[in-house]
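Summary of Year 1 activities. Much of the first year was spent building the evaluation harness for sequence design. The harness presents a backbone, in tokenized form, and records the residue chosen at every position. We chose the following record to illustrate the format because it has been used consistently in internal testing since the harness was completed.
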């Protein structure tokens, strides 16, 4: 079940038994109040009384352009504000400090259970959560959030103080901060300077004064000493049923793996084919490559017989405990079967929904053109006074112009089109009539070439002429993409509605299953991650890999070995100042380290603290062996990776 403990139910006796250390309430309050939720995607923490905070470089890398000035290249050269007046506000960035925790289970669960049907229970749940959030937000002036824990077995209300004046102080060069790029991502040993400093300012525009901050350790992590990670792990599915995991394996995670890693492959191909734009493509692949690797190893975990057998055994143990108590068996005994039945129903439409869904991140612009053309045709069938404003006069011209931006990347769109056709074929099958219509039985590039040879959607001039011919000309054009849109989008809306009804019913059953889980285990196990503050315990430790042993710590010697061994080539090149260092620099200094903590996306930027509340590192990644941790924590090789405070 992992080790992502909540602060309100921190397992103090377990800490004492395991590490001979029992944190005091003052200790817990100090590390909690010093920690932050960084926007909607990372964690951070205060490191000074003047509002200085620390997070990962990769948590800000994709927003560097928000405070970069003309002529600068912060990703390449980094950023350092020598004086307070040099610090730059990052637009739309905020951090949140959790200052209130309250158990509201007794207010939520009885209200939920008062519903006579699954639909009523779900409605009651949503209403009581909204009511509590509004009441406590108004009463406290905080941003309050009611969070279901243990799949609805317990509900906690968290109150956050938000700070929205966040200014950049120090950012490393991307080459050093994200050293090794995509190939090294989720691997270990590592050599990344993945940290950044920002400062919080108060409502008067002054650096925030705070008593809650953590001091950086000069010594770094020590062996055989307990270490605690304080952060906001995003989302896990350790408590999901086997039927749900099997659905992820066969449909949802399988599809995400295909799309993300297909897109990554496209960017790598383009970087090879167009070396003059290699930097642009390498930059573009950073986020999808990170996510793609996650899904690559998650799908491997879901296909691993050992892991799925472990999950089945855990579920059987849980069911046996419920069935051993007659009152629980009567109340909850049918829930597993109910969820399995719902997932069976969802399987019947899941592939269609995936195939019909047009997602801008993965889908070629040509599909967007086709959708817009169909929309225009439908609008043109209406009296002019009933048409949407964007389908009239100059706004229509603007709509068409937006479909064909001057900077459109044709090679990228063509490769995405090939990916789209293969994705549709994977989900619908090669014998499907729609698949045959759009691809002529071809795959990949050949299918994309066939579509473009028979489509108007790659030419602004032809599109304009087609629109002039009227709605019937558009709808009967025989264009494969237009045909696909006509025959999928209305059905997609019906399927989405159907799937939402299934998922709503499942949510009601999951809430009840959560109550059963909490009745059996209570707080002896941690709840799934919810992007709320947690404390995870562990120790400094290496592990067996690749036929040898990965050391618990790495040094700068290792980074320079990697630099020279890879012929100083991307992504193992280094900025000039990282190569030209003085003789006083000790290359044996600890750089990164691995530990046995349980983390997931969202934990990036978490403080790693010792018994003395000193920061010995900042968490930035997990190894590939930690990827199954979304579903099950296996301590043998599951490792968190951090930058050492030294």
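For this record, the design step produced the sequence shown next.
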């Amino acid at each position: 079940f992992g080790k992502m403990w909540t602060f309100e139910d921190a397992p103090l006796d377990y800490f004492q038994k395991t590490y001979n250390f029992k944190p005091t309430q003052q200790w817990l309050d100090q590390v909690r109040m010093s920690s932050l939720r960084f926007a909607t995607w990372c964690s951070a923490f205060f490191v000074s009384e003047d509002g200085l905070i620390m997070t990962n470089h990769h948590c800000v890398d994709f927003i560097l352009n928000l405070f970069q000035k003309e002529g600068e290249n912060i990703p390449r050269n980094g950023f350092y504000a020598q004086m307070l007046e040099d610090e730059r506000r990052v637009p739309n960035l905020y951090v949140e400090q959790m200052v209130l925790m309250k158990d509201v289970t007794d207010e939520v669960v009885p209200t939920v259970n008062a519903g006579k049907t699954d639909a009523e229970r779900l409605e009651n749940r949503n209403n009581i959560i909204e009511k509590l959030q509004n009441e406590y937000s108004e009463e406290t002036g905080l941003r309050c959030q009611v969070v279901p824990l243990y799949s609805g077995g317990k509900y906690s209300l968290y109150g956050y103080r938000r700070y929205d004046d966040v200014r950049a102080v120090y950012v490393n060069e991307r080459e050093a901060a994200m050293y090794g790029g995509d190939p090294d991502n989720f691997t270990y040993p590592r050599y990344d300077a993945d940290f950044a400093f920002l400062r919080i300012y108060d409502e008067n525009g002054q650096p925030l004064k705070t008593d809650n901050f953590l001091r950086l350790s000069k010594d770094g992590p020590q062996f055989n000493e307990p270490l605690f990670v304080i952060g906001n792990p995003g989302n896990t599915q350790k408590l999901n049923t086997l039927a749900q995991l099997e659905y992820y394996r066969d449909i949802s995670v399988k599809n995400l793996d295909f799309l993300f890693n297909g897109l990554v492959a496209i960017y790598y191909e383009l970087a090879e084919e167009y070396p003059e734009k290699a930097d642009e493509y390498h930059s573009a692949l950073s986020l999808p490559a990170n996510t793609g690797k996650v899904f690559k190893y998650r799908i491997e975990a879901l296909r691993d017989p050992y892991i799925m057998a472990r999950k089945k055994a855990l579920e059987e143990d849980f069911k046996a405990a419920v069935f051993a108590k007659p009152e629980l068996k009567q109340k909850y005994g049918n829930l597993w079967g109910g969820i399995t039945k719902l997932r069976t129903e969802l399987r019947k439409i899941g592939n269609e929904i995936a195939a019909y869904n047009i997602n801008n991140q993965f889908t070629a612009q040509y599909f967007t053109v086709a959708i817009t053309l169909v929309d225009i045709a439908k609008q043109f069938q209406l009296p002019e006074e009933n048409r949407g404003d964007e389908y009239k006069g100059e706004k229509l011209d603007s709509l068409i112009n937006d479909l064909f931006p001057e900077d459109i990347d044709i090679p990228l769109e063509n490769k995405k089109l090939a990916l789209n056709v293969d994705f549709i074929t994977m989900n619908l099958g090669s014998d499907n009539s729609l698949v045959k219509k759009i691809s002529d039985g071809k795959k990949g590039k050949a299918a994309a070439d066939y579509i473009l040879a028979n489509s108007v959607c790659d030419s602004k001039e032809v599109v304009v002429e087609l629109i002039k011919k009227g709605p019937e000309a558009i709808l009967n054009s025989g264009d494969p993409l237009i045909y696909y849109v006509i025959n999928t989008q209305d059905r997609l809306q019906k399927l989405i509605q159907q799937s939402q009804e299934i998922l709503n019913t499942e949510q009601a059953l999951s809430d009840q299953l959560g109550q059963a889980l909490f009745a059996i285990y209570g707080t002896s196990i941690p709840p799934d991650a919810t992007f709320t503050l947690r404390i995870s315990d562990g120790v400094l430790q290496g592990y067996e890999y690749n036929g040898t042993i990965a050391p618990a710590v790495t040094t700068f010697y290792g980074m320079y070995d990697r630099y020279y061994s890879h012929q100083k080539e991307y992504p193992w090149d280094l900025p000039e100042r990282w190569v030209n260092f003085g003789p006083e620099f000790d290359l044996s200094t600890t750089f990164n380290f691995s530990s046995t903590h349980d983390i997931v996306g969202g934990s990036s930027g978490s403080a790693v603290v010792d018994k003395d509340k000193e920061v010995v590192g900042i968490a930035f990644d997990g190894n590939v062996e930690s990827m199954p941790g979304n579903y099950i924590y296996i301590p043998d090789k599951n490792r968190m990776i951090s930058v050492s405070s030294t």
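The chain has four domains: 5-94+167-235+531-620+632-644, 99-163, 240-356+494-526, 358-487. Quantitative recovery figures across the full test set are reported in Table 2.
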